[in-house]
Amino acid sequence: MTQETNTLSIDELSALVVKIFTHAGMSDQQAQATAKVIVSGERDGCKSHGIYRIEGCLRTIAAGKVEPRAEPELTDDRSAVLRVDAKGAFSPAAFALGAPVLAERARELGVATLVINSCTHFSALWPEIETLTDMGLAALAICPSYASVAPHGGKEPLLGTNPLAFGWPRPAKHPYVFDFATSIAARGEIELHRRAGTQIPEGWAMDVNGEPTIDPEEALAGAMLPFGAHKGSAISTMIELLSGVMIGDMTSPEALENLGNTTLSPHHGELIIAFSPEKFSAGRPGNPFDRAETLFDAILGQGARLPSQRRFAMRDKTMREGVTLTSDEMQSLQSFLS
């Protein structure tokens, strides 16, 4: 039997999610920034980073592990390193405060970095990346998580899912963007399998005894695996060093110790690097954006896809037609207001 559906405009869904967060005690600044990220995920068909994330955010607020009304603070010493203290809040409002200054500094110096400290992170990184590509900048973003991934050759959780995202601006087109966990799959994907009662693919995770498993319950209790074996493990460790140790914030094991479990959103830091293609290519032949398009055309010419193409196609569709939610999803959203 086909389940009934509801179609909401982006503005309608955004207003509903903001209402849910303010009902939970978030300030308008925090609610607006956090809702924007969640609605972006739903808009783009990324179910594991859309409204599914609301429950975890609310659970983290209820547990007192995030500051719902904190006002982020920007520190700028006019160097290439900008810093925003999120003061224990979710990360989107802190990024929104720092992003315009980061963009200005990158255009001035060629490259600039934004350090976000003491934030709670729950989302994908591509919303930050696309904010910067919309400003004509290339960008890279990384952050730890909480220990849920075994290093290559290990059997126990130590590394985080540790996402890495990159974007390149494309005038009058959607940017070139990739965003992936350094684990084989995002933890949210395993959680969705658990909720659906389906098995996960082989090679995603181990159980508590270090044995391979396709049971999502066992996977969530055990350890996920890094993508690309030793290569993914090394990249994940690099992310721990750069966006944990180097910026003076929590590594994934420390974030897990701080939380005590993996049912809440992790508290740590984030590192964003912005580049000005014009500044880097100054004095060299050719336009960097035109040269990039030549490369993208060559990739597409072989029948390959660019990353995020499906996501952008879904975005174009939902911007025209709205976001379609099942009746169960709508009831879940309404229940957050009771």
Report what the structure shows:
This protein is an alpha+beta fold. The chain contains 13 helices and twelve strands. Strands 2-3-4-11-5-6-7 form a seven-stranded mixed β-sheet. The protein has a three-stranded antiparallel β-sheet with strand order 9-8-10. It has a two-stranded antiparallel ribbon with strand order 1-12. Helix 2 packs across helix 4. The longest helix is centred in the N-terminal third of the chain and has 19 residues. The chain is globular and about 55 Å long. The relative contact order is 0.16. The model has no long low-confidence stretch (mean pLDDT 96). This is Ldh family oxidoreductase.
What are the SSEs and their pairings?
Blueprint: E1 5-8, H1 10-23, H2 28-43, H3 52-62, E2 73-75, E3 81-85, H4 91-109, E4 111-120, H5 126-133, E5 138-142, E6 164-168, E7 176-180, H6 187-196, E8 205-206, E9 212-213, H7 216-221, E10 223-224, H8 230-245, H9 252-259, E11 267-275, H10 277-281, H11 288-301, H12 309-321, E12 323-326, H13 327-335
Parallel strand pairs: 3-4
Antiparallel strand pairs: 1-12, 2-3, 4-11, 5-6, 5-11, 6-7, 8-9, 8-10
Helix pairs in contact: 1-2, 2-4
Q: For the CA atoms, what is the radius of gyration?
A: 20 Å
Return the string of H and E elements: EHHHEEHEHEEEHEEHEHHEHHHEH
What is the name of the CATH architecture?
Answer: 2-Layer Sandwich
The main β sheet shows up as: 7 strands, mixed
* Poorly predicted segments: none
Count of helix runs: 13
The level-1 CATH class = Alpha Beta
Number of β-strand runs? 12
Keywords: Oxidoreductase
Family: Belongs to the LDH2/MDH2 oxidoreductase family.
Protein name: Ldh family oxidoreductase
InterPro entries: Mal/L-sulf/L-lact_DH-like_ah, Mal/L-sulf/L-lact_DH-like_NADP, Mal/L-sulfo/L-lacto_DH-like_sf, Malate/L-lactate_DH-like
